[in-house]
Amino acid sequence: MEKVQHLVDDVVTYAGTVHAANPDLPRFLFGHSMGGLVSLKVCVSQPNLFQYAIFSAPSTSRPPTVNPVLAALGGVVGKLGPRLRLTPLDKSTLCRNAASVQAYEADPMIWHQNIAVGFGADILATGAQLLSQANLSQFTIPSLFLSGSADTIVNPAGSLKFFQNCASPDKTYLSLDGWFHELLNEPEADQLMPFITDWIKERLALAPGAVLATNTQKIGSVNEGQLSFQLVP
Description:
With about 230 residues, the protein is of the alpha/beta class. The chain is built from eight helices and six strands. It has a single domain (about 5-230), classed as Rossmann fold, CATH 3.40.50.1820. The protein has a six-stranded mixed β-sheet, sandwiched between helices. The N and C termini lie far apart (about 40 Å). The mean pLDDT is about 90.
């Protein structure tokens, strides 16, 4: 894999085929991590392909674990040495659930080699492009953004900036205090799922063509094992 656009093209092609076979079904898109980045680009480039979108820890800006010099030179280095790889991912920072980390390490369907420098640079370049004002002003899809405040795999600041500046009339941002990157595998993930499904159900209940006027930012905190939500003024 060399370009994020290759993944975007796959999603667009597949979604178009599914939508053509099921024209009356509502169209939701869910993307996590690099999939969140791909999903954002799909929604920006094909604004009518999906009606609603959920972005879980999308990789929209350079994480603190990536050297800024390497990030700046990644495209050049990738062309000169296409086989060069980024430093290994610290899998212990993926999730606070040890069993989930072990399952990740044992999963044969996951690419366990380090990302090529050139592809890593393209991920960062794509994120920077998406955060440009031109793209933010064109983004109008009703969306839910999820992030973990202790995520070091991606930088939560990128998705927050996208949320704050995009033109969507219906947007919600939830920052989960102390959570790592794999939000749906964190120890309290079963309490997060109702928040997501309620968001979906609220939009499914709307009349055709109706859009909620929502601009909400929340913090999710766990106290004595219970997840609660606080509205950010």
